[in-house]
Amino acid sequence: MNRLLKVPVLATRAFSSSSRHLKNKVPEAQKLFQEDNGLPVHIKGGTGDVLLYRATMVLTIAGTCYSLYWLLVASMPQKKA
Rounded to the nearest 5°, which phi and psi values hold at 28? Predict the structure, then answer.
């Protein structure tokens, strides 16, 4: 029974703001993304952003080609046997 009475206290401690001191990283990110280095904003984040961008472009182009192929196949008349 004693353990059940301690649950609210432990839950409050877990979510207390005084238990963790997190550093605000927003100013560094703002400097990085506002820097004028000629790169588009969607790839300024580094290698991970570049890989995600290229994978997205490859999947988009492949999906478009696949859709156009099946549209072409569907537009051809069926051969009668």
Answer: -65, -40
